[in-house]
Amino acid sequence: MAMAIRIRVLLLFLFFLSLSHLTFSLYQDQVGLMDWHQQYIGKVKHAVFHTQKAGRKRVVVSTEENVIASLDLRRGEIFWRHVLGSNDTVNELDIALGKYVITLSSGGKYLRAWNLPDGQMIWESFLPGSTASRSILSIPTNLKVGKDDLILAYGSGSLYAVSSIDGEVLWTKDLASEGIDVQQLIHRHGSNIIYALGFIGSSHFATFEINAKNGELLKHDKVRFTGGFCGDISFLKSDTAVALDSTRSSLVSVRFRDGEISIEQVHISDLLLDSSGVAAILPYKLIEMVAVKVKEFIIFVKLTNEGKFVVVDQIDHTAIISDSLSILEDQQAIALIQHGDNKIQLTVKLVSDWSNHLIKETIYMDCQRGLAQRIFLNNYVRTDRSSGFRALIVMEDHSLLLVQQGEIVWSREDGLASIVEVTTSELPLEKDSVSVATVEHSLLEWLKGHVLKLKGTLMLANPDDIAAIQKLRVQSSEKSKMTRDHNGFRKLIIVLTRAGKLFALHTGDGQIVWSVLLNSLRKSQTCEAPNVLTLHQWQVPHHHALDENPSILVLGRCGPNLDSPGVYSIVDAYTGKELNSVGPFHSIVQIIPLPHTDSREQRLHLLIDKDWHAHLYPRSPEALAIFQREVGNIYWYSVEADNGILRGHAAKENCILQLPDEYCFGTRNLWSIVFPSESERIIATATRKLNEAVHTQAKVVADQDVMYKYISKNLLFIATVAPQAAGDIGSVTPDESWLVVYLVDTITGRILHRMTHYGSQGPVHAVVSENWVVYHYFNLRAHRYEMSVIEIYDQSRADNKDVLKLVLGKHNLTSAISAYTRTEVVTKQQSYFFSHSVKAISTTSTAKGITSKQLLIGTVGDQVLALDKRFLDPRRTLNPTQAEKEEGIIPLTDSLPIIPQSYVTHALKVEGLRGIVTVPAKLESTTLVFAHGVDLFFTRLAPSKTYDSLTEDFSYALLLITIVALVVAIFVTWILSERKELQEKWR
Amino acid sequence: MKITVYSPKSSSWILLLLTLSFLLTSSFAFQSDELLVDDEEFGLEGGSGSTPDVGSTIPARPSQPARKRSPDFSSGSDLDSKVQFTLEHAFGDSDFSPAGTFAARVKNSPHSGQTLTKLRFSRTDFTAADKDNFKKLLEADDFYRIRIPSNLLTSPGRDYVISSVKARCLPRHGLDEHIVIHMDGVNVLAVNYGSQGACQYPRHLKFPKRWLFNSHTVLKSGEQAPRTPVFSEETAVGENGEGEGVAPPERSFWAKYWMYLLPLGLIVMNAMTQAMNMPEEQQGGGQAGSQVQQRGQSAAVRRR
């Protein structure tokens, strides 16, 4: 009976759905009301200042996220920004002719010129070459060929001279074929000769003289050094270099003057008394000086005119040094940063006068920023005509600071450009105490606001009022409060960045509520190369432990390999305090959150190490008891993408180790699927979200029939391609390329569905939800991208349609389902063309799963497109019947529509889009969407419109006034009519 | 050896449950047969396609040799070769030991390489030790595991494909097993092992009446994805009309212009009634007037 009612409700609901508009869009004045957008650039690795003779002082930077940006030096805002492709790493950056930004990227393959004021690309040159080499960009002053100023670029083993006007390659010289590994290009002022300096093999130093006019090789010299070079070299002047020998124990000075090369060797132990150990030349571009790291120290070494090494200074190895900056009268200035507790000390010194310093400033630094990692120095002329310095500092958490006069002028949280993982947390509950003052204040505001709103609705508002209304809307919507709201729109988005920093962002306006640099994920003695893995919700207080704060589990690994030891931290989600940090311990290969929590609502987690041992966390007797009770029902799977094997596992008794550990369990292999290595390679997997809510198991189809969805939390989608087709699109012919998709039950390893798309190729992006999978791939035969949908239905419940059976309770709808039951499934599938490539794909999720779903597709243009799931319905037919139309089935088309209004990001771009996360709000109709890449974007979506609430700008006052007016009118007319009747009667 | 004793009441309950489950599961078994027929049909249909599909159900009794079934498609081809591979089983975490052999023919076809046909399976009986082990599994609700090589020609190939089932799922009357082998040419992708029908949860301990296997084996290969429909003539319409902008079907005159016709009709009706009422109204008006007069008079009279 309940079933029938539910079906009827569903039918009604579907009918309403079909009435609702297909598109989601918002009006211009709604932008920014419930969405926010933040722009970042990533960790800065090159910076060039442009301050002389410029109205707007700026700094041009390139970052590890392959961004080139021009920043305002006064406030740190972005003037312009370009995000290069993910594999187009910027190698070198410089400014030419005072108006072009020149970048060399992709290992010296692309040379581009950008207009400095507005960032438009002026020209681009492709510099071909096959040998990998370091890339060097050199912009000599006053070196002209004809009228063109030359730009010298060395990449892929060849030297290119490029015209700075149009990017035309004037000449090339292949130097790799000469055997030289070029380290530096030097052009002496006023001459027409370019020197290419470098090593030949490991024991020769060579100089090549090249005619700058035509690239002709004039002369080449080489000299043999018996000790051999280790590769570290630093160029002090235009004719002197310092290198390290192959044992890294002595410095070698190389002088190349007038075609003669002379070499001298000095042991570091001669320079420094206590210097046993290996040395390294630090890769700073210093002039007249070289910085050498020896053990725990950095020593600054100068070379006198007689060729003697002199140690100038010796500082702690944690200090950070800037490249040298030429200031007036050919002086070289160097900035040093030394770390203290919660502060850094910035010192600027002249190379020629090392004992004195130009500036010595102590700057208080938030300890959550970690240590400084890079510094870029710039000078300016003070009001009293002396020279001042400002410095751009890159911190350990990838943030960028500008320091001037001992203060932080501005800072940017650019760590947020490299988000690894996202989760959310509820905000604390609201306390009931509200002071009187705020009420009185807000009463006036409230009245004002309502007058304004009334004006707006009655179209009486002038432009100023409209602006005020807009501002009010943005401000007064209570959206940035730090407490939980009724609709569940306010939450904390907790993001983990690659730098190992955890940020909590408020969903209302994107403000950073707290941030913490996790100690366990910082470089230390025990953990040399920390690597951020992921984060999980550790404790979500729900029923039992309401007075406790939620907490987050952050996992990391000390090193790049799978077998590196792991670390973890538990962080309070309200305050950002690190509650607990453990490690390094066993390796972490896989993390499995279990569907069980202990009495404090801490979620049980299994961490699988490389020896297939399962470690249980939290390590408490209670958790152990829960685990041992449920151990028979705990299964997991692993994907070995390299081997092409899928395995299913279960836990068994405690593992045998040297030290007995009751929280460690052995595992057993229950099933395996072996993909033939010669024909299939795993390229993508997708599973359902663990916390996804499904409202109904049944789907009512047009002819009053019911289909039962196959709903299993253990559904795995896996896609394989032919090994030869694993490369880029177009690298294979359609005949030798295929894509096989599987639906696998991860408990028993049963292949529920297997299907081959011939002539198709990856990359595959897939999303699994409820009983369907949508995946995106390239069809080589049709030369187009395609999206396919597979829906899977449970046939074994199909005979539960009899109402009589339902009434009598003779149905198997409530019985426990075992994965070992071989349920009969049927699949329906359909493919559609889709004109965009896809960067990420996700689906909306709501609290109860009633609201219809939309697919959120990250397009190639870094936007998020919302596509109604109904377009990807396998039951679409060319001419749907009337009943099917009522159900909301759209007539079949061969391609999916891209409706411009349905871009969730409207006019904005989420540059470098990597992921789309959806979180259900408490309000059933609404879902929160967070898209992250280099930029961040947040909005909330209502895929079927907000059918369960009034809009925010709904005027309750108007409604009240209307009701009151109506009531008054009723009374007045009633009295009038009474009177009239009376008069009639008296007549 | 531990012997579990049941009270007659509980055993009768289990019997009832079993018969119920048997009744329930019998329909499943039937359905699974249908699917296999589907597979076979697909194989026949897609004979020209590049993934031939072979479905065969061989109810194998360990005592009797496997029955030959299905017409011989490839009788003319002399490229066929026979292949044998073993099914191995393990009780819980024990080592694998042989438990049966599969025999099949490898068919070489120029289009799709080597494929497997005519699979036969002969199951070896449980030895006494096996029975003991299996009973232990039943008591501990542990896994019964099987494996077969992942490549039939270069056995065991890269690895074995493993499958397992909770031992308590198997016993019914005898021991029901259902083996689905997913093939890709001569490679075995996966094997799925389980009971014929449902495996109720919670699983009750129950020993088989007869230690005989009732085996079903199914060979499955993947299906080919249907082509994406292409409507070349309709794409133009679809593109300028935002996808679902297929031109609406021509509507009737009435459907199109009802909003104009309706007021027009009303006006006409109104006018007609007015025209018809004209003479009546004149009469009525006269009467009304006289009435008023009368009333006026009477009122006047009353006032007096």
UniProtKB/TrEMBL annotation, chain A:
Residues 26-414 form the EMC1 first beta-propeller domain. Residues 769-986 form the ER membrane protein complex subunit 1 C-terminal domain. It is found in: Endoplasmic reticulum membrane. GO terms for biological process: protein folding in endoplasmic reticulum. SUPFAM superfamilies: Quinoprotein alcohol dehydrogenase-like. Residues 1-25 form the signal peptide. Keywords: Endoplasmic reticulum, Glycoprotein, Membrane, Signal, Transmembrane, Transmembrane helix. GO terms for cellular component: EMC complex. Belongs to the EMC1 family. Component of the ER membrane protein complex (EMC). This is ER membrane protein complex subunit 1.
From TrEMBL, chain B:
CDD domains: EMC10. Its main location: endoplasmic reticulum. Belongs to the EMC10 family. Transmembrane segments: none annotated. Keywords: Endoplasmic reticulum, Membrane, Signal, Transmembrane, Transmembrane helix. Residues 289-304 have a biased composition (Low complexity). It comes from the Eukaryota. It comes from Coffea canephora (Robusta coffee). Residues 44-79, 280-304 are annotated as: Disordered. It is a single-pass type I membrane protein. This is ER membrane protein complex subunit 10. It is found in: Endoplasmic reticulum membrane. Residues 1-29 form the signal peptide. One of its GO terms (cellular component) is endoplasmic reticulum membrane.
